[in-house]
Design a protein that fits this description.
The chain is mainly α and 216 residues long. It is built from twelve helices and no strands. The two termini are 29 Å apart.
Length: 216
């Protein structure tokens, strides 16, 4: 299974949607970065429905793609790729209960699958359920402590829960484990600013901007 592909999808979602009032801005990028059928390392790869779903995505017939992903998920209940793609598509269409159930199905298949915890955290956060979202992101930090996604998610959720000191500590941890992550430094700038540390916030923001320029 292409773990890095799914982690990247989750990070794209997190960077732009978790702290936004409306997460819609991330949905187009989420759809575009869904893995193609060849990423399914299981029988789902050869199913005609999978090829139809890929064609629907390329044609931007997203409603059709979502329905096909449901059919594929039902047909292959043990396929990690099929279940994850269904959950991601459901999340992109704001089908929170369906997406939540989908990510939990993935975790039932593989309890340490980090992208599913990230996706579940994003769904919970999109519903203003920041306490369960925080627990999901904490799971990420336990399974993959060197991944910035979990710490950024924890920081954002703690912020929304009014726990600014915790938010700041999580953000600092994110930059410690991922010093080259623009997202981590951006969140640290935000957390430092909310804590009243203007100088530290400015320095963190400058670092975030520097990292962004380096990848252009």
């Amino acid at each position: 299974m292409a773990r890095t592909t799914f982690v990247f999808i989750a990070l794209v979602l997190m960077a732009s949607s978790l702290r936004a009032a409306a997460p819609d801005s991330a949905l187009g990028r989420l759809i575009q970065k869904l893995p193609p059928p060849e990423k399914f390392v299981d029988p789902a790869i050869n199913d005609p429905l999978t090829k139809k779903m890929q064609a629907a995505l390329k044609a931007r017939n997203y409603g059709t793609a979502l329905e096909l992903s449901r059919q594929i998920a039902r047909r292959y209940p043990r396929s990690l790729g099929a279940q994850m793609t269904h959950a991601l598509l459901a999340a992109s269409f704001k089908q929170a209960p369906e997406a939540r159930a989908g990510f939990k199905t993935v975790l039932g298949l593989r309890g340490d699958f980090v992208p599913a915890y990230v996706g579940l955290g994003l769904v919970e956060a999109s519903q203003n359920r920041f306490s369960p979202a925080l627990e999901d992101f904490r799971q990420v930090t336990q399974i993959a402590p060197k991944l910035d996604a979990g710490w950024i998610g924890c920081s954002l959720c703690a912020e929304r829960l009014g726990r600014r000191n915790d938010s700041l500590n999580y953000a600092r941890k994110a930059t410690a484990v991922a010093p080259n992550s623009a997202g981590a430094w951006s969140q640290l700038a935000r957390a430092e600013g909310l804590a009243g540390n203007k100088k530290a916030g400015g320095a963190a923001l400058a670092r975030a901007n520097q990292l962004v320029r380096q990848v252009r």
